Amino acid sequence: MRHWIRDEDEPDEDERQLRDEEEAEHRRMAAWVDSLTDDEFQELQQARDTAGAGRDLRAGLAAYIPR
Question: Do residues 55 and 45 make contact, with C-beta atoms less than 8 angstroms apart?
């Protein structure tokens, strides 16, 4: 095996860094949403609904699929 030729399925350093940053951002967002009181969450969700932002914040976070 030629070790200087990387495996096609193996992400390169830039892809790994991007994936790690996305996962860290997702964890920060999930922690922030979990820290909201019920009233704060309802207020934020109503603002999102009014703006047409779509689904529930928690549902959106749960739908996150790491690469």
Answer: no
